[in-house]
Amino acid sequence: MIIALELVALAINLFYAPINVAAGGATGIAILLSAAFGINRSLTVLGVNLLMIGLSMLFLNRQMVQKIIVGSFLLPFLMYITPSYQVVDDAVLAVIIGGTVFATGVAILYRLEASAGGTTVPPMILKKYFGINSALSLLLIDMIITAFNLLVSGTNAFFLAAFSLVITSIVMRYIETGFDLKRQVQIMSNDALDEIQAMLAKEKLSWTTYEARGGYTNEGREMVMVMLDRSDYAHLLRQVHDIDPDAFIITTNVTEVHGGRLGY
């Protein structure tokens, strides 16, 4: 959790704050106030987080408050002790790197079911009492904060902040779902299923065989399911088509696989 929060602090202090780009969140508010009035960023984040802790105590359960409270104090502390200076001169490059680092830290926090507090609290409250999707309400809050770049730092900062939101969402999606994506392949053959299974055994691939029933004919037929890495998919497809060019194949992307061997 400390590593994740430090990544967020590094993204703010080394990439966003030096170019005065506020891409949402309590840290975005801190950057705006620092650029406009010279207020210390870590103090602003602490103040916003204290307010959010108070709201969470009023409207959320104790378990949620416990998840929020640790990160709410750790993040401003890490921002305070982390050096702040401009690492790269190019603003677009700063936003790309900063967005990637920031998203990595936030994604790790989500994996740990932890939180840095801040503007993540109002969406939790809105979801609990009004059923409003928390992702949409958080995006709206971030967009409002991002819009204030127009008043504080100008048009360039606004578009850079908007671009940063896109970068952050893309990186978070990939980190949350995992980089080690798998392919689930389902194979059905009229006459060559035994040969396909023999090929799978030769290739040392695990598979599961189960019965499928046609909706029109109501005939039962066996189908093979294989879970494999993306790099092995093209090879498997070629091997199946060499055995049966008319084999019926369904392929699905799978973000995560847990446990032992699927085939038995």
How are the SSEs placed, and which strands pair?
Blueprint: H1 2-16, H2 25-37, H3 41-59, H4 62-81, H5 91-111, H6 121-130, H7 134-147, H8 149-152, H9 155-177, E1 182-188, H10 193-202, E2 207-213, E3 220-229, H11 233-243, E4 248-254
Antiparallel strand pairs: 1-3, 1-4, 2-3
Notable traits:
single chain; 264 residues; alpha+beta; Alpha-Beta Plaits; 2 domains
Quick summary of this structure?
The chain is an alpha+beta fold and 264 residues long. The chain contains eleven helices and four strands; from the N terminus they run αααααααααβαββαβ. The longest helix has 23 residues, at 155-177.
Q: What does this entry look like structurally?
A:
The protein has 264 residues and is α+β, with helices and mostly antiparallel strands. Helix content is 61%, strand content 12%. The protein has a 4-stranded antiparallel sheet, with helices on one face. The model has no long low-confidence stretch (mean pLDDT 89). It is found in: Cell membrane. Keywords: Cell membrane, Membrane, Transmembrane, Transmembrane helix. InterPro entries: DUF2179 (IPR019264), N-reg_PII/ATP_PRibTrfase_C (IPR015867), UPF0750_membrane (IPR051461), YitT (IPR003740).
